[in-house]
Write a structure and sequence with these properties.
By secondary structure, the chain is of the alpha+beta class. The chain has 2 domains: 162 residues, Tetratricopeptide repeat domain (Serine Threonine Protein Phosphatase 5, Tetratricopeptide repeat), CATH 1.25.40.10; 217 residues, no CATH class. The strands form 3 sheets. Strands 6, 7, 8, 9, 10, 11 and 12 form a 7-stranded mixed β-sheet that branches. It has a 3-stranded antiparallel β-sheet with strand order 1-4-5. A hairpin with a 6-residue loop joins β6 and β7. α2 runs antiparallel to α3 and α3 runs parallel beside α5. It is globular and about 70 Å long.
C-alpha cells in the first residue's frame, strides 16, 4: 500500500501534468491515511480548483485553514498564509464576496507585509462600490510595494479621487463604452461592406409557410431573438466584431487608469441605488437587478422582472434605440439568479444608442413602485 508521502508526490506530479482527476484521487487516498493533514486538505482543494470545481474545493480549503491554526512555528507561517489566500480566492470565484473580504482582512492583520492580499481586497472593495475602503486598502498596499507597483497604486487612488471631486455620474463610463464600441463596429462594418457583407442581420429560418421568421434558440426566452454582427449573404458566413484592445474608457481622456481595475461608481439620479463599473463593455454588458426582499423561488424572482427586461430587449432588437437600419440589440442571455434577491442578464447592445440604458432604468423605476428594487449594477461589478 502506498505511503502518504508517495501519494502526495503522485498527486503533485499529476497536477504539474494537468491530470487533475488523477491528482484528486491521489490526494483523497492520502487523506484516507491521515485526514488531519492541513497540507493534504489544501492540495485536494487546489486540485478541485484547478479542475474548475470550486464548490468541492472550498470545504477542503476551509479545513486546511482550520487544521493549520494550532501550528505556531515561524517556518510554517508562510504555508498558513498561503492556505488563507487560497481560500479567499476560492470564495471570490464563487462570488462569496463578503467571505472573501473577511478572509483577506484577516490575512492583512496577521501578515501585514505581504502585498498581494492588499491588492486582492482593494480590487474586491472597488468592484462592489466600496470606494473609501478600496482607496484606503490601495494606500496601504502602496506602503508595502516598491517601484512601478507602488506608483500604480498611487495613480489609481488619485484617479478615483479626481473622478469623485469632479462629481461626475458613473453613467459616463457607459456612454464612453457605447461610443467607443460603436466607432469600432462602424470601422469594421464599413470595411466588410466593401466585400458585400451585411451588418446586424437577424438570424432567420423558414416557417411552415415558407416565409422567413426570426430564430429563437431551443429553451431560450421567447423574446431572445438574435442578430449577428456581420454576415456574408453569398455563403452565410458569420463573423463577430471584437477588438483585441476591448473598448474600455478610451473616450475619457485622463481617466484611463480607472480601467486598470473594475471600479463601481454611483449614478444617483434614480429611486434605487445604481452602480456602473468602469469595465462595462457595450457588446457584453452584464445587468444585475437586486430587490429589497427575498423571493420564494428562482421562478418567482425571475418573474418579477423578466417581462419588463424582455420587452425592453425586443424594443432594442427592433431598432428603438438605433438609426435607420443600424443600431439594434444583438443578444440577451437567459436570466441568471445570483441569490434569492438578485437576477442578472448579459446583453449585446450592438450599435444601439446610449439612451437604451436610461430607458431601461426608467422602466425599472416604474416597477419599483410595486416591487421594491434595492440596486441595479452595470458591468463587471461584484454583488455583496
Amino acid at each position: 500500500m502506498p505511503t502518504l508521502d508517495e501519494l502526495a508526490r503522485k498527486g503533485i506530479e499529476a497536477i504539474n501534468e494537468k491530470r487533475f482527476e488523477d491528482a484528486i484521487e491521489a490526494f483523497k487516498a492520502a487523506l484516507a491515511v491521515d485526514e488531519a493533514r492541513p497540507d493534504m486538505n489544501s492540495a485536494l482543494g487546489m486540485a478541485y480548483l484547478h479542475r474548475g470545481d470550486v464548490g468541492n474545493a472550498i470545504p477542503h480549503l476551509e479545513r486546511a485553514v482550520a487544521l493549520a491554526e494550532p501550528y505556531t512555528a515561524p517556518e510554517v507561517q508562510g504555508m498558513k498564509r498561503d492556505f488563507h489566500i487560497q481560500l479567499a480566492t476560492a470564495y471570490q470565484l464563487m462570488d462569496r464576496v463578503d467571505d472573501a473580504m473577511r478572509t483577506l482582512s484577516g490575512i492583512l492583520k496577521r501578515w501585514p507585509s505581504v502585498p498581494e492580499p492588499y491588492l486582492q481586497l482593494g480590487n474586491l472593495q472597488l468592484s462592489t462600490g466600496m470606494l473609501a475602503e478600496g482607496k484606503a486598502t490601495y494606500r496601504d498596499a502602496a506602503g508595502v510595494l516598491t517601484g512601478d507597483d507602488k506608483k500604480a497604486c498611487e495613480v489609481l487612488v488619485a484617479a478615483i479621487e479626481a473622478f469623485e471631486e469632479a462629481e461626475q455620474p458613473g453613467s459616463l463610463f457607459l456612454e464612453a463604452h457605447a461610443q467607443s464600441y460603436k466607432d469600432y463596429f462602424d470601422q469594421v462594418a464599413e470595411a466588410q461592406a466593401e466585400h458585400g457583407w451585411y451588418a446586424e442581420a437577424a438570424r432567420m429560418a423558414r416557417g411552415a409557410d415558407g416565409e422567413p421568421v426570426p430564430i429563437v434558440a431551443d429553451g431560450a426566452r421567447p423574446y431572445a431573438l438574435t442578430r449577428v454582427d456581420l454576415v456574408n449573404p453569398v455563403d452565410g458566413t458569420v463573423s463577430g466584431v471584437y477588438s483585441e484592445q476591448e473598448p474600455m474608457v478610451v473616450a475619457l481622456q485622463g481617466l484611463e487608469p480607472l480601467a486598470e481595475a473594475p471600479i463601481v461608481f454611483p449614478w444617483n439620479d434614480w429611486p434605487f441605488a445604481v452602480g456602473v463599473c468602469t469595465r462595462c463593455p457595450w457588446h457584453w454588458l452584464q445587468i444585475v437587478i437586486q430587490f429589497d426582499d427575498r423571493a420564494a423561488s428562482e421562478d418567482e424572482l425571475i418573474a418579477r422582472v423578466d417581462e419588463l427586461v424582455g420587452g425592453w430587449y425586443l424594443s432594442g432588437y427592433n431598432g428603438e434605440f438605433g438609426e435607420a437600419e443600424s443600431g439594434r440589440f444583438h443578444y440577451i442571455s437567459d436570466p441568471e439568479p445570483l441569490s434569492d434577491r438578485a437576477v442578472a442578464y448579459t446583453v449585446d447592445l450592438g450599435r444601439a444608442r446610449y439612451e437604451a440604458v436610461p430607458t431601461l432604468l426608467k422602466r425599472l423605476a416604474v416597477l419599483h413602485d410595486t416591487k421594491r428594487i434595492d440596486r441595479v449594477l452595470f458591468g463587471y461589478a461584484r454583488l455583496r
